[in-house]
Amino acid sequence: MEVVTDQIIELFVLAIPVASISWTVTHEEVFREPREWCAKHSKVCQRLFERKFFYLFTCEYCFSHYISAIFLIITGFKLLFTDWRGYLIAVFSLVWVANFYMSVFGRVRLDLKRERIEIDTQEKKLTELSNRGSG
């Protein structure tokens, strides 16, 4: 039972960099230009394989599969089984946990943005009221 507990902890820890890399490439400003280029090519390429290849750089869920596979190769992490089945279960579990993290992160960012907008709106109202009172 201790081995499974250690594997679950490893799973949740490994999902952090998978989620971070997947989110950064598919959402953040630093990769905007390459992502837009890939998005364009995912729509205009003639071959299905090319369209799907370029699409994976625009979708955090799709991209997380590849990043998870890379992390499994680097770490040798397996879940529940010590053979190829351990890799198979690990890759899909890692994708699921990483996407859960990204969903939570996306929700937190949305809430923070909403709060910033509300604060800006309230500050503008206060500024307008103070300008009316002094004028």
Q: Your description of this structure?
A:
84% of the residues lie in helices and 0% in strands. With 135 residues, the protein is mainly α. Helix 1 (2-27) crosses helix 5 and helix 2 (32-44) runs antiparallel to helix 3 (48-55). The chain is flat. The termini are far apart.
- Indicate the proportion of strand residues: under 5%
Radius of gyration (CA) equals 21 Å
Given the C-alpha coordinates, what overall shape results? flat
> How many individual domains?
1
β-strand number: 0
Largest β-sheet summary? none
Class from secondary-structure proportions: mainly alpha
Distance between the ends: 74 Å
Helix fraction by DSSP (H/I, runs of at least 4): over 70%
Summarize model confidence as the mean pLDDT: 91
Write down the secondary-structure element order.
HHHHH
The helix count comes to 5
Please mark out the parts with pLDDT under 50 across 5 or more consecutive residues, or reply none.
none
Topology:
Blueprint: H1 2-27, H2 32-44, H3 48-55, H4 60-75, H5 84-134
